[in-house]
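Quick log. Single chain, no ligands specified.
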Amino acid sequence: MKYGKDQKISYIYALSAVLLWSSVATAFKIALKSLSPLELVFYSSVTALVFLAVMLIIQKKIYETFKYFKKHITLIVVLGFINPFVYYLTLFKAYDLLPAQEAQAINYTWALMLSYLSVIFLKQRLSRYDAIAGFIAYFGVLIIATKGDITSLHFSNNLGLFLALLSTVLWSFYWIFNTRIKADPIISLFSNFLVGVIFISIYFISTQSFHMPSLSGVLSTIYIGLFEMGITFILWLKALNFSENTSKTANLIFLSPILSLVFIHYIVGETIETSTVIALVFILFGLSLQKFKSKS
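-> predicted structure:
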């Protein structure tokens, strides 16, 4: 579908996406109060799959989806295994172990991880901007992990830190593998979730018994399935399609971690640590430096 360019409409879609993305860290913590990470992955992924299926039916793309699935079955299985299965299981476990403010800040370094892995797997060059940006951003991660006491090198939660960083690696691999396919993004995402839900269901059934989650658990998983995995993705695509200047629209994503801290403080009730704010400044500065390099 062709879109006319309208920067104001682009901003509306982009800000809507940013607002929703900013709220998901809070939704993760609320859901994890009553659900295990695996239960959260299962219920939210099923919600996202149903939503994406409805979108394909509305857009009359079922036949295209069958053709796409038949042509790229092997790669779809790999992508579906990574996302939603392993990636979200890793991410939700990190949120279960860490304060939301720490997990979400570390998660934003995935763009830097993507740059480094692209050097190895896509044969891209690593510029001095990438190296400097990485040093700055990961110094911010060190501040978060040690709660500001960087000289001690004592991490508040070793497993949580490892899983949060691992989630950035998994997400980067997901996008690297995605470069091998040129496809309608909704068809691609639906196919990945269809395979991913099969993996999740098998693992779920083989490791734990089913029980009906609480009302807050149900509502939070529906919220995550729709707004972390489904609708927000479409809003962001529309924002980019309407945009007269993609860079201006994309810059709005830097509002997300700041808004996220506001939600985490007032809804989850976490006291935002000074070390988190300082670390987030380093991370965002590193990401903006990398973006400057990409624009250049």
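The radius of gyration is 19 Å.
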